[in-house]
Write a structure and sequence with these properties.
The chain has helices spanning 6-14, 17-37, 42-63, 71-89, 106-131, 134-144, 149-156, 160-185. By secondary structure, the protein is an all-alpha fold.
């Protein structure tokens, strides 16, 4: 079934400047944040987004692209792969997939939907983590960051046994809050 965001693909095909402008307003911020956070500049982000929209246009005109997922994760997937390939070409970072691997098909749409779900889960995790008390946040940050728990306990000036107990309580609280939030979303 075609997703309602197919209107963005149709707008690209028909060169509907108002809707294309809407695409840039709605989605360029996330793309810019991703590229700037991964060794790029705002100019790089603008170039990547433009190239991705051209690719989507080509897929729509040559392969009759029909979106079965929201437009944003699909666009973001293409932009991420394009950017990773640029980094690979410039020798700044290794890449595992070529852009040619992004073809129109259910597997790409499923991957885009999966990315959207992962982004949502991460957002829920961060929101729930911020709701914890300061001592829980500090204990979990240190313990989840790796390192020897005996050293962590010593640096926090608490016993190893108390650290383990408190960590378990904090994790249980965090897990409960996350599950509660995720069940509301599904």
């Amino acid at each position: 079934m075609t997703h309602p965001d197919q209107r963005y693909v149709t707008a690209l095909l028909s060169n509907d400047t108002l809707v294309v402008k809407e695409i840039y307003q709605k989605y360029s911020g996330n793309i810019k944040r991703y590229i700037v956070a991964n060794s790029g500049s705002e100019d790089d982000a603008a170039d990547i987004m433009q190239e991705a929209l051209i690719d989507i246009y080509r897929q729509a005109s040559e392969q009759q692209l029909q979106l079965t997922c929201p437009f944003e994760p699909y666009l973001l997937l293409i932009c991420k792969r394009k950017w990773l390939n640029n980094l690979k070409k410039s020798g700044r970072q290794p890449v595992t997939k070529e852009l040619d691997d992004v073809s129109v098909g259910e597997d790409v749409f499923a991957l885009a939907e999966q990315m959207q779900q992962q982004d949502h889960r991460m957002k829920v995790f961060l929101e729930c983590f911020e709701q914890l008390g300061s001592s829980c946040k500090e204990i979990l940050k240190r313990c989840l960051g790796g390192g020897d728990q005996e050293s962590i306990a010593a640096s926090l000036q608490i016993t190893y046994g108390y650290l383990r107990k408190k960590k378990a309580e904090c994790m249980a609280s965090l897990t409960k809050n996350i599950q509660s939030q995720l069940s509301k979303w599904q």
